[in-house]
Each structure stands twice: as structure tokens, then as C-alpha cells.
Design a protein that fits this description.
6 helices; globular; binds D-ribose; Ribose 5-phosphate Isomerase B, Chain: A; alpha/beta
């Protein structure tokens, strides 16, 4: 199976994007990089919108968005209907956001000092499964909020 991930970042997260993209490639994922690869200033809402539009074309398992904190780019992504972008703070949260929220995007901050390696957080997300059941009911309710 061809497992595909779209990844994008602003100028505040070039290094962490590279770490995550390389890790995905090592794990056999096909990675579409829609982010920037130098420090020239760009606007993270544009980056989020581009990556979400690509994801919604279909064929992607999930997406990753990175900015300086991960905050602006995750807020932007969550404005796009159909996107559930989580900003995990550690391995536990990365696992939980797959199991409970069925997040389809992860966000990371290139200027954040994480207590655990971002690659471990990414692995925890990839290697977990959505639990469904009562969590599915909650996710359905969550996704209806934007269309009210
Ligand atoms: C860019 O300087 C910075 O504001 C951005 O990367 C991000 O941290 C916003 O939330």
C-alpha cells in the first residue's frame, strides 16, 4: 500500500519539517512537501490552506503542518471544513489524538522545546488506531460545529 503524507511549513519550522519528512520517508511513506525550505518569511495561513486543499484531493493518510509554535498554522487548518488538526505536546497526546479525535493533521512547532522527540510523537500517532464508538459520536458532533 502506498501510504502518503502531505507536509508543509513556514520559515519558522524548516528544520523540524525536514526531521519529520525524513522520518516518514525512512518509514516508507511517500511525502509531498508543500512547505518552504529556506528562512524567507511567508504567511502560515497560506501554507495551511495549500496543504489542506492538497489533503482534501484524497489519497493521503494524514497531513503535517509546522510553524514556529505550531499554533497559528493549526488554528488556520482547523478553519478548513473536514480538517482536524491536533497540536500534540508529547507522545501521549499524539497517541490520544488518533485514538480519540481521529485527527487528520498533526502540527508541530519549530521553535518549541519538546520534552520528547517529535519523531516519537509522530510514530505514536501513526501506530495508533481510532477507537470509534463514543469517540466517533464526539468527533461527528465536533465536525458539525463548523457547519451550524
Ligand atoms: C512566524 O514568525 C510565526 O509567527 C509563525 O511561525 C507561528 O509561530 C505562528 O503561530
Amino acid at each position: 500500500m502506498n501510504r502518503k503524507v502531505v507536509i508543509a511549513n513556514d520559515h519558522g519550522a524548516v528544520a523540524v519539517k525536514r526531521i519529520l519528512a525524513d522520518h516518514l520517508a525512512d518509514r516508507g511513506f511517500t511525502v509531498t512537501n508543500l512547505g518552504v525550505d529556506d528562512e524567507a518569511s511567508v504567511d502560515y495561513p497560506d501554507i495551511a490552506q495549500r496543504a489542506c486543499a492538497e489533503f482534501l484531493q484524497g489519497g493521503y493518510e494524514f497531513g503535517i503542518l509546522c510553524c514556529g509554535t505550531g499554533i497559528g498554522i493549526s488554528i488556520s487548518a482547523n478553519k478548513v471544513p473536514g480538517i482536524r488538526c491536533a497540536l500534540p505536546q508529547n507522545v501521549f497526546a499524539a497517541q490520544m489524538t488518533k485514538e480519540h479525535n481521529n485527527a487528520n493533521f498533526l502540527a508541530f512547532g519549530g521553535r518549541i522545546e519538546y520534552q520528547e522527540p517529535v519523531t516519537d510523537m509522530l510514530d505514536a500517532f501513526i501506530d495508533s488506531e481510532f477507537l470509534g464508538g463514543r469517540h466517533g459520536v464526539r468527533v461527528d458532533k465536533m465536525m458539525k460545529i463548523s457547519s451550524c
